[in-house]
Amino acid sequence: AQKITQTQPGMFVQEKEAVTLDCTYDTSDPSYGLFWYKQPSSGEMIFLIYQGSYDQQNATEGRYSLNFQKARKSANLVISASQLGDSAMYFCAMSFYNQGGKLIFGQGTELSVKP
Amino acid sequence: DAGVTQSPTHLIKTRGQQVTLRCSPKSGHDTVSWYQQALGQGPQFIFQYYEEEERQRGNFPDRFSGHQFPNYSSELNVNALLLGDSALYLCASSPDGQGLYGYTFGSGTRLTVV
Fold first, then answer.
1. pLDDT higher than threshold 80 for residue B102
2. Cis before residue B25, ω within 30 degrees of 0?
C-alpha cells in the first residue's frame, strides 16, 4: 500500500528557531517523488520543496531543507530560522513517475510559531 | 503571471442538488488535477485531465465528473450532493503531468452542503 504518515498533528516553535516536521512513507515502487506543501488559512497549497527518489543529495530551498533517509523511508522537512508567517498546515505528499503523477497526501501537521 | 484560478471561492448547496466548480490552470500548464480536502484531512485525489481526457481517477463515485476544455481550463461536476461532499475542492496544474516540477494549486472552492 502507498501511504504517507505524519505523526505530529500540531507543533510549536519559537520564532527564529529551527523546527523539524516528520514524514514517513510506504511504497515498494522505486521511482517516486516527495513533496512538502504549506497551506495557510487561505486554503492555497504552496509548494515548498521536492525530492526525487534517485536524488543523491538532500533538497534545499532557502530556509527549507528535506532530510531524506531512503532506507528508513522518511522525508522530514526542516525549517530554519522560523518566522511568524510560517504558521500554517504543512503536508507531505508523494507521487509516482509511472502512475500519472497523482499526489498522495499525509494528514498534515499544524505549525504554530510563537513570538 | 497568474497562478491557478478557481471559482467560485465559496458555495452553499442543498442536498440532492448539482454543482459545477471551475479552474483555470497556470499559464503554460496543460494538466489539471482535482482534489477534495475534508476538514482536518489531507487532500484526496479525485481525477486528472490531460488533452481533454480523464487520464487517471481516484476512489470517487461516478457522481463526480469533469471536463477539460481546449484552453486547458477544467470543470468539476458533482451530482446528487450529499452532506459528506462538504469540503474544500482544490485544483492543481502542472506542465508535465508527472509533477516532477511541482504542482501549482489554486486557493480552492469551499463547498458546503446543507
1. no
2. no
Is the pLDDT score of A73 beyond 80?
Answer: yes
Q: What is the mean pLDDT of residues B31-44?
A: 96
Cell digits of residue A29:
515502487
Query: Is B45 part of the contact surface with chain A (CB cutoff 8 Å)?
Result: yes
CA of B83 vs chain A CAs: smallest distance (Å): 21
Contact between B42 and A106 using a beta-carbon 8 Å cutoff: yes
**Phi, psi dihedral angles at A85 (to 5 degrees):** -70, -5
Angstrom CA distances, A10 to A66, A75, A107, B6, B8, stand at: 19, 18, 11, 29, 30
CB A13 within 8 A of CB A82: yes
Residue B37 is predicted with a pLDDT of 98
Which chain A residues in 35-54 lie under 8 Å from chain B, judged by CB atoms? Answer: 35, 37, 42-47, 50, 52
The shortest C-alpha distance from B28 to chain A (Å) reads: 17
* Mean pLDDT value of segment B11-26: 97
Q: Is the pLDDT of residue B85 over 90?
A: yes
